[in-house]
Amino acid sequence: MIVSLRLNFLLIPASALLILTAKPCAAQERAVAELENGVIAESPLFPAESQSADNLTSGLDFLQEFGPPEPITPGSLLGRALEKNLQLQVTSLEAAQSADSAQAAKGIYDLTLLFSAEQYKDTIQSTKDPDLVEDAARLTNDPITLMALQDYSSVRIDQRQAAIGLQQFTPTGATLAVDTASVRYKQGQYNAGYYYDPLFSRTYSITVTQPLLKNFGPFVSNAPINIARKQYEIAQRSFEYQLQVLASEAARAYWDLVFAIGNAEVNRVSLEQARGLSNDQRKKFEEGVVDKVTVLQAEAGVAAREGQYLTARQNIRMIQDVIKKLMDVDGGAWDSNLVPVDLAPTIREYNVALDQALDNALNKRPDYRQLLLAQELLEINERFARNQKLPQINLFGSYGLRGTDDDYSDAERYAETQDYDNWTIGVQVMHPLQNRAARYQYAKAQKDVEQGQLEIQNLRNTIIQQLRDSRRAIETNRQLIAFAETSIQAEQAKLDAEIKRFREGLSTSQDLLDFQEDLQIARTEYLRSVVTYNKAVIDLELSQGTLLETLGVKIDYADPFAQE
Description:
Layout: E1 2-5, E2 32-34, H1 37-40, E3 69-72, H2 74-84, H3 86-105, E4 112-124, H4 130-139, H5 143-150, E5 155-169, E6 175-189, E7 194-195, E8 199-211, H6 218-286, H7 292-327, E9 337-340, H8 354-364, H9 366-388, E10 392-405, H10 408-416, E11 421-430, H11 436-503, H12 509-544, H13 547-551, E12 553-555
Parallel strand pairs: 1-12, 3-9
Antiparallel strand pairs: 1-2, 4-5, 5-6, 6-7, 6-8, 8-10, 10-11
Helix pairs in contact: 2-6, 3-6, 4-5, 6-7, 6-9, 6-12, 8-11, 9-11, 11-12
């Protein structure tokens, strides 16, 4: 069974009994699943070979009472669950949202277009008061204003300006900007009602601002991108974990249904035995061979087993509904009668060393890898927070060319001659004296890293416990299966002997009912041990993080950073 998941489209071939096509999901790029029934049955989770000592599931006509049987295989169940499960779709949407965030994080390096256009008009009031002229000279450095005041004439200014440029953020933390501007300046005497000829100015400039401590360097500059990448990888692991959990739920539900149907069959057989005994005793009572108490004992046994059989049948419907929820059925599909194609409880030897299982878990478990990625993210935050404690020292510089004339073409020509240049260089320092925000953010980031380390160690211990529990469950149920096989043989022999004694009048109907119940219990325990064994294998695969690999499910993610 090969399943290639690209998270958008899911197909189960006809060999898996169903052909399913999912609508494209925004959270997925592409998903193709090939769940071959004949292949998946060869995995340790769904063995093809039966080692049953007793056929417990023959004569299942009672299942027809629930409606026409709809056969399900492990492959079709898993495929439907992977395609239709709503929670899985929610998780895949979260992964897609993280991919979008990762793409958006690269926007810090987008080339930015800057454009501005403005028109400015002003009228400067004249004055003949020398004191006001002196006060204005102290308050303004505008030569036009000073000229207007000193000439005792009102001045009207009309200025139009347009600028266009580009700005780029660089990995060192520097901001680089280049721009060009055109200015048309016109001045006139307001009282006289006329303007002087306009002046034109053309400028070209380049400006660089480079942080030297705080916000300096590629690590700080790329922190948002690296954080977004880690969050996307965490979302991937979260999706994988949800996929593993869903696959384990589907596999366990399959075995639960096998047990429910097998247990109902055991109870049906036991009920039929009790009814046969009751009918036999009633005939003997009519013939005067046994008393009324003996008949009542047999009828009480029938009533008790009818209750057990009814409960077992209801349990089938309950498990079927669990599977339907996993498959996200709707409408009339809730009334369908799902029946596993192979109801014979089977086992296959499954052995894995604890050291190997732990190595698998630490390398393959999505939730453990998710926690490791989260720790890396916390360490990025810590290092970034440490940088934010530093003073903000910016080195800045600019270089420009200017040309001015009463003709626009001449102004542009003067600017291009590079004879009229200007430059600026300087340092700007900013730093909060207490710097409490940065200091405590860094202290919090340190504690987050320490907490993350403890969570990793705690999960590692939990993994070890889960692995040990699952291995013990496998070993225990392997032995219980052997014990149950022996018990079935012994209880069958005891029942056969008791039937012989009963026919010879050496045993009561109650004794026979007790021996029948002992055989019923032995058969149920055998069935339970086989199913529990297989579910323990599933649990061990889940604890190792190898469940999807065992089932043949492969996930292929598209890298959002490779998309432009």
